[in-house]
């Protein structure tokens, strides 16, 4: 198996999808000639040509609106928004058409398409380049909301998303794009949408997270294991709509305690939904209130204050210690 960073793994998934299905097309601003802002679409234009790797105007609404028509005619468009903060210009297409067409036509037409978006902080970007608005899309019926966290699951989940019959919003944590490498199988690999992954097994407490926050979570887990021998179960959500309630319930029923970590704002965030489900499904197993470590309810700050906004290992360790003491 080759060692890859997330950028190369995502590129591999698109190359595999384009090779296996002539209906797959890649479209977005600068995805062809310039190979994408983060070079995720590197060499795809050279390998598959301009009819399948399509450079679009700087018009997010037009990109997604065009993809709607393509999907209705049997194609499988994979749209790239350069940053998730630019996708608000396309939200009317996503909410009004992408999420609704299957229901609107009573099942006659499906929207088989993927909208890829780099999201989250950690790269010292300017305004509208660092938001974490996954809850906005998870709230829409008819959309699948997938968030990768490592090179291997990025490749597997993107390939599965492109093959999926329903529309998928695919968030890529740009802070993880080149942060580390991981072994990625040589043969095509997929992971099911809607299933969380138990990354580490434990018995004292469960930490639930996703995306770029998996790295500070695992750092905190290693530190706590070294310091006091705490046995921590770690769950990577991978899909925030639909949420794998069964996996979460089974884990917290075993450990009795839970901490949820995400970098999006606290109010009405994914952590609030996870907490509500745990209260509904395993209330009598809980030994302490579920804790949330999140971004703050403010606009994402400029780069001088970026790290103060993002959850880190120290905040996570403090939450775990306090939850264990209850």
Overview of this protein structure:
The protein is α/β, with parallel strands linked by helices and 326 residues long. It folds into two domains: 2-184, Thiamin diphosphate (ThDP)-binding fold, Pyr/PP domains (Rossmann fold, 3-Layer(aba) Sandwich), CATH 3.40.50; 197-325, 3-Layer(aba) Sandwich (Rossmann fold), CATH 3.40.50. Helices cover 37% and strands 20% of the residues. The chain has helices at residues 6-20, 44-48, 60-72, 91-98, 101-104, 134-138, 151-163, 214-228, 245-255, 270-282, 306-309, 313-325, and strands at residues 2-4, 24-28, 53-55, 76-80, 114-119, 144-147, 168-173, 182-184, 197-200, 205-209, 232-236, 239-241, 258-265, 291-295.
């Amino acid at each position: 198996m080759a060692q890859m960073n997330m950028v190369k793994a995502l590129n591999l998934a698109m190359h595999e999808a384009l090779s296996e299905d002539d209906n797959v097309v890649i479209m977005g601003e600068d995805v062809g000639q310039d190979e994408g802002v983060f070079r995720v679409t590197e060499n795809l234009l050279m390998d598959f040509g301009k009819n399948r790797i399509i450079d679009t105007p700087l018009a997010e609404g037009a990109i997604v609106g065009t993809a709607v028509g393509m999907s209705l005619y049997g194609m499988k468009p994979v749209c790239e928004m350069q940053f998730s903060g630019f996708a608000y210009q396309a939200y009317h297409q996503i909410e009004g058409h992408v999420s609704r067409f299957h229901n609107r036509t009573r099942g006659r037409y499906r929207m088989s398409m993927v909208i890829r978006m780099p999201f989250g902080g950690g790269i010292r970007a300017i305004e509208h380049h660092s938001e974490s608005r996954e809850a906005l899309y998870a709230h829409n019926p008819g959309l699948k909301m997938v968030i990768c966290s490592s090179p291997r699951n990025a490749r597997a989940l993107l390939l599965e998303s492109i093959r999926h019959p329903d529309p998928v919003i695919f968030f890529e944590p740009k802070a993880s794009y080149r942060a580390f490498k991981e072994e990625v199988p040589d043969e095509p690999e997929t992971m099911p949408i809607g299933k969380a992954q138990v990354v580490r097994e434990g018995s004292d407490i469960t930490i639930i997270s996703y995306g770029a926050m998996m790295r500070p979570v695992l750092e905190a887990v290693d530190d706590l294991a070294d310091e006091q021998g705490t046995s921590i179960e770690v769950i990577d959500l991978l899909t925030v709509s639909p949420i794998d309630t069964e996996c979460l319930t089974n884990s917290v029923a075993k450990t009795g305690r839970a901490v949820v970590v995400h970098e999006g704002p606290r109010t009405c965030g994914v952590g609030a939904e996870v907490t509500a489900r745990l209260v509904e499904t395993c209330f009598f197993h809980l030994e302490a209130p579920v804790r949330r470590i999140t971004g703050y309810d403010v606009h994402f700050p400029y780069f001088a204050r970026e790290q103060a906004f993002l959850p880190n290992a120290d905040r996570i360790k403090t939450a775990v210690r306090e939850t264990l003491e209850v």
